[in-house]
Amino acid sequence: MGELKAIASPDDAAVWAHRILDAKNSLTEADARQVEDAFRVKLAALESAAGIDKSRLAHPEPRRFRDKEHVRFEAKQPCLICGRRL
Fold it and tell me: Would 78 be classed as within a structural domain?
C-alpha cells in the first residue's frame, strides 16, 4: 500500500494495478480488500484533481477578455448562413 503514494496519474495507476495483481491475490481477503479500498481512494483523488492550470505553463494560454459592447453588436447581426435575426 506504500507504493500507492508514488502513483501520480490514472495511467500510472493502471500500470501499478496490473503489476500488483498477483501479489494482491495472494493476500488474505481482508488485506486484499484494504488494498482495493486504498486503490479506489487514490484513483478517485487522481480523477477528481483539477485540470491543468494553463497559467503556470511555460507558454501560458492568453487570458480571453470580452468586450461587452462588441458582444452586443454581434448579437444584433443576422446569421451569416441563413440571414435570420434573433
Answer: no
Phi, psi of 55, deg, nearest 5: -75, -15
CB distance 13 to 43 below 8 Å = yes
Label residue 21 exposed, middle or buried (CB < 10 Å: 0-12, 13-18, 19+): exposed
Global pTM value: 0.54
- Is residue 25 situated within a structural domain? yes
Q: What are phi and psi of 36, to 5 degrees?
A: -60, -45
Q: Which domain holds residue 35?
A: 1-50
Residue 41 within a domain = yes
Q: What pLDDT, in 10s, does the model give residues 30-42?
A: 999 999 999 999 9
